[in-house]
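Our collaborator T.R. sent over the components below with a one-line note: 'Predict the complex.' Nothing else. No constraints on interfaces, no templates requested, no preferences about which chain binds where. So this is a plain run: every listed entity goes in together, and whatever single assembly comes back becomes the starting point for the next discussion.
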Amino acid sequence: MDNINQPETTPGSPDSTEQRIFDAAHELFVLKGLDGAKMQEIADKAGINKALLHYYYRSKEKLYEMVAKAVISRALPIIQNLLESDDPLEEKISRFIDFYIDMVSRNPFVPLFVINELNKHPDRFFEAILPKELPRPHNFFRQVEEEIAKGNLRPVKPQHLLVNVVSLCVFPFVAKPMIRIVLGLDQQEIKAFLAQRKEEVKAFVFQAIKT
Amino acid sequence: MDNINQPETTPGSPDSTEQRIFDAAHELFVLKGLDGAKMQEIADKAGINKALLHYYYRSKEKLYEMVAKAVISRALPIIQNLLESDDPLEEKISRFIDFYIDMVSRNPFVPLFVINELNKHPDRFFEAILPKELPRPHNFFRQVEEEIAKGNLRPVKPQHLLVNVVSLCVFPFVAKPMIRIVLGLDQQEIKAFLAQRKEEVKAFVFQAIKT
DNA sequence: AGGCGGTTTAACTTTTTGGTTAAAAAAATT
DNA sequence: AATTTTTTTAACCAAAAAGTTAAACCGCCT
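Returned assembly:
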């Protein structure tokens, strides 16, 4: 095992069995959750025997835990950086929206996974999965308040602004099938619709907060 | 059985065994999903023997299907009414936000249930659960376009406006535990925070769409 | 070549879980 | 009161799923 300079959550060399198992588990757990994904299924997808799962990862729980950790610890630092950079506020919000929508449209099941995990097993989540270092939106909040003081921004509670932006970015991708039904869109149309979200969200947010 | 004037999805008299089973199943399925909820668990919560579940509802699938139908058919007509009423647009949006946030804060797990169901078992959902009549936001869209034509509204795509409003209403409740962590709020504070959402969303949306 | 550690497999065991059955208890009907 | 019907239970069954084991395999070292 030569994973000396890799985080424990991304095990083994790039195409090792260990890694293949992890990737298969990652895909299936994110897609179906802990109960929905079956060990046999994971083994099949990884192209190996079921016993190997237990050889490399002691139990289903353990494997799940590592996957969950990897998912979380991949997303958090980027968010942290975006929020705490020293870019001017408007640019920061714009970048944040771009990044978030890019991420969510590439991995539409990840936010759902995190939300489910957090709602349904909060105990495990806090104890085993969340890292000590959490995004601190402190700098972002300060910036918002400064701009308000300068009169460049309508007085909005910075916490609500952050929640609003994230809501507008994430929810439409999570609720994609529902939107398809209600708006009566086909595969192509919903894709086009979601592709417009970056510009739409930016326009909506900037209009909402400008003085 | 005297459920002559009740929908088939709400069976039996108010405190019958049948109803108690249904209520228990409702709670657990909404909370944990099809795979997560176990028949024994449902029986325990209903205070009866496991065999009774199969006596009243043939199988887990059937029971789940009825619960899902009940959840859906409770919410859809109200949304339909809100969207298609002839209230003036601003009032309609305001009512919509009030209702949606009320509903979601009373049943925070319902939207998550619907979203999961729709993402993970779309086939079953379309065939067995969704009613024929779906909310048609047609009237709402027309109103938006009229107001834009009259110059009362910034030109926004009505579909995006609808999605934005729903996102702002639903997402914060679904993502409540995540918000708690990131904003560092305790039980009381997050409750207060979410209670502000109605006014916050209205202010945000109206500012975003006004000319 | 022969042994050694890590890797992989097939076959097995145990636990969980959905579902069944036959009979007892309770309620309704006569 | 007797009987029929509905409700409820305990015990059981079969399938699925997690987890285990012992033996085979494979690359490497000397």
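Summary for T.R.: Chain B has two domains: 1-57, 72-209.
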